[in-house]
Design brief:
Blueprint lengths: L5 H15 L3 H18 L9 E5 L3 H15 L5 E5 L8 H9 L4 E3 L3 H13 L2 E5 L11 H13 L2 E5 L21 E5 L4 H4 L9 E5 L5 H4 L6 E4 L1 H7 L14 E5 L6 H14 L3 E6 L1 H10 L4 E4 L6 H12 L4 E4 L7 H13 L4 E3 L2 H6 L5 H4 L4 E3 L3 H8 L8 H14 L2 E4 L5 E3 L6 E4 L11 H23 L5 H22 L7 H6 L1 H6 L3
Parallel strand pairs: 1-2, 1-4, 2-3, 4-5, 5-6, 6-7, 8-17, 9-10, 9-12, 10-11, 12-13, 13-14, 14-15
Antiparallel strand pairs: 15-16, 16-17
Helix pairs in contact: 2-3, 3-4, 5-6, 9-19, 10-11, 10-18, 12-13, 18-19
């Protein structure tokens, strides 16, 4: 599903009106009917319930008037409209609805009028929020801020139309003044503040409803940001043929772990197997591998002594990697001089799909000329600190500027980026599309979560490439990455239900991978 900006919404509306011949008033009436049908049908609000529809003077206010008209027309007897702008200040399309509903309208466009209307608003059981919509780009002040604060104080069931009032259209930053609804009904497509934190945590339950826009508008590739959800995950679920054997699902190689950090290699390797890879081999120093073999007998190990002469160790690595489906490098690997040397050799000599995580990214950051020598498909999985090192700029949070910088970096370096944060993003280098994940929770803010994600990514790619080789089933590389990120987040969500976000650990996420699969099969 695409995520729309304010400019996208304007283009969609204008194109729709032009191609259908509809008037703006008819379009608004359609939006109002859709919201009214939702309130009556999905929310199951009976027609005798008191409903306060609070309208501003812009397009969102027009949606509110149209919603009220549709509710009254379908038999709702307790609908009352509260207009925060006087009739003379309304846009023509908004005024058209106002004039036809005037008997049901209470003017609250001045402080004294608003004070007198408070009892009526508080007496309603449901509040429909159409005060401010997608045009907000600054903090709400004055009378509108007072109205917002009053609605929030009521403790009523609040339904926001398109955006909770005060939310920004093109930023996920949480404004100081905003409606806190129980439900938001987005028209056509969601906006970034509805699907990305911190704002998304204050939108209530999100519903997206189409009012007749066709796929050519809602899937326009001009829009570069997408939401990856359960519907897409079901489409991308790796196949599991009944007559298959382990060779169908690929063989992962994981170069990870070092003294004191063997657990990172263990988490990544068992996550790859739990995800469905046919075989997984961890390569590294013997003292690390003995620990991994001790608590994960399903994982194979391949010792490579980096204390050996360089050519001998490189020959051993090449021999181990030559038949592997996908390689992961980095979790807990360390950045010693010898490790850096073999990392350079890996980048220069390996030609298959390569996932770089953690210390591999830290080694790459000061030597990005290596990217020109790498000839395979490359996936980078940085967190904000690691993307800072790759981009050469400080990254405190994932905002619009960081997203655009990462998009440009992915294209320039021809690398897929999985940017890990509370809202993980996948960047496609070929077309500039960015995919926002819809799963996960704060329980993932724990050591080892990134190692598990790296293992899941490796396991999914291993299956996809293995099935492609065995059965000729082509797959979308970007969507495979999106699925892996989604699966990781869904497993975390299910793990949090069993334990608690405070107490869950990375191993709990691995344990919930099977539950995550069952949730979509």
């Amino acid at each position: 599903m695409k995520i729309a900006s304010q400019a996208d919404l304007k283009r969609i509306d204008e194109t729709f009106l032009k191609t259908t011949g509809m008037t703006e008033t008819e379009l608004i009436a359609g939006a109002g009917k859709t919201v009214a049908d939702f309130i009556r049908g999905e929310l199951r609000i009976p027609g005798t319930v008191g409903i306060a529809v609070i309208c501003g003077g812009g397009n969102n206010g027009a949606d509110g008037f149209a919603t009220a008209m549709a509710l009254i027309g379908s038999g709702f007897s307790g609908v009352r409209i509260y207009a925060a702008k006087p009739r003379a200040a309304l846009r023509p399309s908004t005024a058209w609805f106002y004039e036809r509903l005037e008997r049901a309208v209470t003017d609250i466009s001045e402080k004294e009028k608003f004070e007198k209307a408070k009892d009526g608003i508080s007496g309603a059981e449901v509040v429909v929020d159409c005060l401010l919509g997608t045009g907000v780009n600054a903090a709400v002040t004055g009378l509108f801020a007072e109205i917002v604060a009053f609605v929030n104080s009521l403790g009523k069931k609040v339904v926001s139309v398109d955006l909770p009032s005060g939310f920004y259209s093109d930023s996920a930053d949480l404004p100081a003044v905003h409606i806190d609804p129980g439900v938001t009904v987005a028209i056509g497509l969601p906006k970034i503040s509805l699907v990305m934190g911190p704002a998304k945590y204050h939108r209530g339950k999100l519903y997206v409803r189409n009012i007749g826009f066709g796929d050519e508008l809602l899937k326009d590739p001009v829009m570069k940001t997408n939401l990856y959800d359960e519907k897409l995950a079901k489409e991308d679920l790796p196949a599991r043929p009944d007559d298959s054997f382990k060779g169908y699902f690929g063989h992962c190689a994981i170069w990870a772990g070092s003294e004191g950090k063997a657990g990172a290699a263990g988490l990544a390797s068992i996550a790859s197997l739990r995800t469905g890879a046919g075989l997984t081999t961890v390569l590294g120093e013997r003292n690390v591998l003995s620990i991994i073999a001790g608590f994960h007998p399903e994982v194979m190990t391949a010792p490579v002594s980096f204390e050996s002469p360089a050519d001998e160790a490189e020959e051993a690595m090449i021999r181990i990697l030559k038949d592997k489906t996908v390689v992961l490098a980095g979790p807990g690997l360390g950045t010693s001089d010898k490790t850096k040397e073999y990392f350079r050799r890996l980048m220069k000599n390996y030609r298959g799909p390569l996932v770089l995580d953690a210390d591999a990214i830290n080694m790459l950051a000061p030597e990005q000329a290596l990217l020109k020598e790498f000839m395979g498909r490359l996936v980078l999985t940085p967190h904000p600190g690691e993307i800072s090192r790759l981009l050469g700029r400080e990254v405190d949070k994932i905002d619009d500027s960081v997203i655009e910088a990462a998009r440009a970096y992915a294209k320039e370096k021809n690398a897929w980026i999985v940017l890990k944060s509370s809202d993980t993003l996948v960047f496609d280098p070929s077309d500039g599309q960015v995919w926002l994940n819809s799963t996960g929770n704060a329980g993932l803010a724990k050591a080892g979560s990134g190692d598990v994600l790296a293992g899941i990514i490796t396991g999914i790619l291993s299956q996809k490439f293995g099935l492609e080789k065995r059965l000729g089933t082509k797959f979308d590389f970007t969507r495979a990455l999106c699925f892996a990120v989604w699966l990781h987040g869904r497993a975390a969500d299910l793990a949090a239900e069993k334990t608690d976000m405070r107490s869950m650990i990375a191993g709990d996420v691995i344990g919930a991978i099977s539950d995550a699969y069952r949730s979509i099969t």
